[in-house]
Structure formats: structure tokens, C-alpha cells
Write a structure and sequence with these properties.
globular, binds S-adenosylmethionine, alpha/beta, 13 helices, DNA polymerase, domain 1, 7 strands, Rossmann fold
């Protein structure tokens, strides 16, 4: 049986998802400038560098210092490659001087390494301090939110970011159990608050909600996509791999309208849409059975690509 380590450009750190379709859609200029806004273990960047010409540039961004170290060890000898430490919420500040860009890639969420590393506190499969910060230099961890946020904020967090229908009940149990310091404790409190059949789903949803909140994942995505309007040249591409519907919905709406709210963009005098991007994926690209069998993480991946117009 194949496992994720057999996939192209996979390492023990992470296996890049939907690699072929992502690069096919992203690359329009072989000697262009590309930003990998979620460098991780550098799998997508490594494959991208292999496709590009000798005058190309790939700038890898990550908010996690460990990811930058991993990718630099892998790709640091390639003079076409450089890294920047920071969140893509500040894409403009990080790569604003490097444009116009030919392509930007977002492979959202966390890497396999971040999940597997017990001490990072992302997974309920290991008992560890409740951390979940992708950037360990930032002050607010999941423990801070669980133990200090007020009831209404916690309920909203679980409803909106976790789409958890029993948010109120779970938050009441959390407040009674404070302080909640570890992933194991949190999972136990959630399990005890919901019917047995829903335990696994609720624990997953609560962990997702906290991770999104701690790292402001949706706010960063919206700000970064907006920045791409200025940073990407006409004809350049933005490719986004998302792993849950909250992200995918935002990407789809933005690629079609240039907005995140429900309004539609205006039209010019000829009736053409004034949206800054043309959506190239009416249906998102998903992984095939072989990839999902080798790498279960690929199951929820949705690739959307848009061209700057
Ligand atoms: C799914 S992994 C990327 C894996 C990578 N494509 C590879 O092939 O190895 C996502 C990475 O994005 C980083 N990340 C998530 N949100 C970020 C943000 N707002 N700014 C910068 N990096 C971010 C995470 O730290 C993680 O390393």
C-alpha cells in the first residue's frame, strides 16, 4: 500500500496536496516571481522550483519559524529561493517590494508536522499543553482563549468557526471546568457535554474553532486575498488549497466577485464585471482516490484558482 511518503515531493514533515493540478494552474511564466504564502515543509515550493527557469524567483512565507528552518534546510542552496517570516495577513509588507507577482499559492491550515508534534497542542490525539499557535512568538494561545474569553465570545467562536450546534452547552461545561490547560482535558470536557454519538465530531469542531480563532485564520485569508489584487500582475494567478467550507466559501466568493460579503461587483459601461479576478475553477479541484488513500489529509482539500484580469 502506498503511504504519504511515496507521494511526489513528500517528506516526513509534510506531503504536498494536489501538487500537479496546483502547479499546472499556477505557473504561467517560467521565469516569473512566485510567492508560496504557506511554505510549510517546502513541498510545493520544491516542485515549483523544479518547473521554473533559471531566472525565476520563489519567495516562501510562513509564520512558523520551524517551517522556515525545515524548508531552508531543503531548498536554501537554490539561489532562486528565499524566505520571509511572518503572517500572510501582512502579505503587502512581506512581498510588496517584490512585485508584480506572477503567482501566489496558499495551502491553508496546518502542516502534518504541526499536527503530529504533540507539544504544539493542535491535536486531541496527544495530551499536551493547549497551545495551537502557528507562530509561537505571538502571545495568545488556545489556553488563553479557553480560560479567559467570556461566555458569549466562546459561544460565538464555537458556532461560527466550528459550526458546532451544541456550542452553548459545551461552553457552560468549559466554564465550570476552568482552568483547562491541556488538549486531553479539553477533549474530555467536550465529550462529557455532548451525546455519545456526537463526541468525535464535537471534539473535532471545537479544536477547529479554537485553532481558527487563535491564528485569526479567516481574517488573514481575507486580508491576503485582498492584497493579491494589488500584488499580482494581470494574467497572474492565485491558487488556494482550502480544507474546510468556511475557507472554501470565502475563496469562491472572492474569486467570483472580489468581495467577501453578499454584494456583487459593479459592471463597466459594456456590461463587463469589474471583479478583479476571473475564477478558473467553476468546480473546485479535488484529490483522486489514489492520493486520498496515500494521504487522508487530501480528502478535504479543495483547490480553486483565479486569474487577475
Ligand atoms: C498545509 S501547510 C503548507 C505545506 C506546504 N505546502 C508543503 O508542501 O510543505 C500550511 C503552512 O502554512 C503556515 N501558515 C498558516 N497560516 C499562515 C499565515 N497566516 N501566514 C503564514 N503562514 C501561515 C503554517 O504555519 C504551515 O506551515
Amino acid at each position: 500500500m502506498t503511504d504519504r511518503y511515496d507521494l511526489p515531493f513528500a517528506t516526513g514533515y509534510h506531503a504536498p496536496v494536489l501538487l500537479g493540478p496546483t502547479l499546472d494552474a499556477l505557473v504561467t511564466e517560467t521565469n516569473g516571481t512566485y510567492v508560496d504564502a504557506t511554505l510549510g515543509g517546502g513541498g510545493h515550493s520544491a516542485a515549483l522550483l523544479e518547473r521554473l527557469g533559471s531566472d525565476a524567483r520563489v519567495i516562501g512565507v510562513d509564520r512558523d519559524g520551524e517551517a522556515l528552518a525545515e524548508a531552508t534546510a531543503r531548498l536554501g542552496n537554490d539561489r532562486r529561493f528565499e524566505t520571509r517570516h511572518g503572517s500572510f495577513i501582512d502579505l503587502e509588507g512581506l512581498v510588496g517590494e517584490d512585485g508584480p507577482l506572477d503567482g501566489v499559492l496558499f495551502d491553508l491550515g496546518v502542516s502534518s508536522h504541526q499536527i503530529d508534534e504533540a507539544g504544539r497542542g493542535f491535536s486531541f490525539r496527544h495530551d499536551a499543553p493547549l497551545d495551537m499557535r502557528m507562530d509561537r512568538t505571538q502571545p495568545v494561545s488556545a489556553a488563553t482563549l479557553v480560560n479567559e474569553a467570556d461566555e458569549a465570545d466562546l459561544v460565538r467562536m464555537l458556532f461560527v468557526y466550528g459550526e458546532e450546534p451544541r456550542a452553548r452547552r459545551i461552553v457552560r461545561a468549559l466554564l465550570a471546568a476552568r482552568p483547562v490547560e491541556t488538549t486531553g482535558q479539553l477533549a474530555e470536557v467536550v465529550r462529557a457535554a455532548v451525546p455519545r454519538l456526537d463526541e468525535a465530531k464535537s471534539v473535532t469542531r471545537v479544536f477547529q474553532a479554537l485553532r481558527i480563532a487563535v491564528n485569526d485564520e479567516l481574517g488573514a485569508l481575507e486580508t491576503a486575498l485582498d492584497a493579491c489584487v494589488q500584488l499580482v500582475r494581470r494574467g497572474g494567478r492565485v491558487a488556494v488549497l482550502s480544507y474546510h467550507s468556511l475557507e472554501d466559501r470565502r475563496v469562491k466568493r472572492f474569486f467570483r466577485t472580489g468581495r467577501f460579503d453578499e454584494t456583487t461587483p459593479g459592471r463597466d459601461v459594456f456590461g463587463n464585471s469589474l471583479a478583479p479576478f476571473r475564477d478558473l475553477t467553476r468546480q473546485p479541484v479535488v484529490a483522486d482516490e489514489t492520493e486520498v488513500a496515500a494521504n487522508p489529509r487530501a480528502r478535504s482539500a479543495r483547490l480553486r484558482v483565479a486569474e487577475r484580469v
